[in-house]
Known about the structure:
It is built from seven helices and eight strands, in the order ααααββββαββαββα. It has helices spanning 2-14, 18-43, 48-65, 67-82, 122-127, 154-167, 203-220, and strands spanning 90-93, 96-103, 107-112, 117-121, 130-132, 140-148, 178-184, 189-197. Strands 4-3-2-1-5 form a five-stranded antiparallel β-sheet. It has a three-stranded antiparallel β-sheet with strand order 6-8-7, covered by helices on one side.
Amino acid sequence: MIKEVLARRLLAHFQLSTGTSYTLLRLTQYTLWFVGGFVAFQFVGIDLSGVAVIFGFLSVGIGFGLQNLTSNFISGLILLFEQHIQVGDRVTVGDIEGNVVEINIRSTTIRSLNNIAIIVPNSEFIQATVINWSHGDPKTRLEIDVGVSYDSDLDLVIQSLKEVANEHPLLLKDPEPNVWLLSFGDSAWNMQLLVWVDSPKIRRQVTSDINCAIVRKFRDHNIEIPFPQRDIHVRTTAMPIPVAVNG
């Protein structure tokens, strides 16, 4: 009930960010658990000093047994306080990409792009390398590679790629799109279109849209996208012709 009052009235009134509001609610929940447990022990007449002595004897064994749990709990508190990863962020952990939907005591729940809930221990976010696409500035640059034939008009290729970028409604005008000629391949100029989007969550859809638009634009301007070709030389040798000999 206290969490609901905080979420609907107090925090909504101050218009805090989603991550800050979630952190305050989680810390309030942990505080209530601690205070509630302390009051409950006092109410039933359990002497906490005696409990502390018992836990002192068992601390070594419990420490080894709960080492992983303690590490994840401390990591969860670090995530809540530092807010490098917040609820709603798009992150990549290992091969997993998705949105952070919940940060709990032991683990963090990530909803993958296939709508699968992935439970990741909090210590993974502290010890491993994590890509947070949404942290700080959410703008993301997309690098779209395409090869064009050596017979193409280079200026027309650059112009066509920029037209594709300017015609897409979700691409940012600032920073403006740019086109690079990266290298000379075996059968093509290796071009790269650089564009920006305001949210990493749409980058896959925008990349697909841009690729489709490039194919259509190149067909309109008769610009060829070559594919690797190999010449095969077949060498034949003359076979001896059998000759019949009359005995």
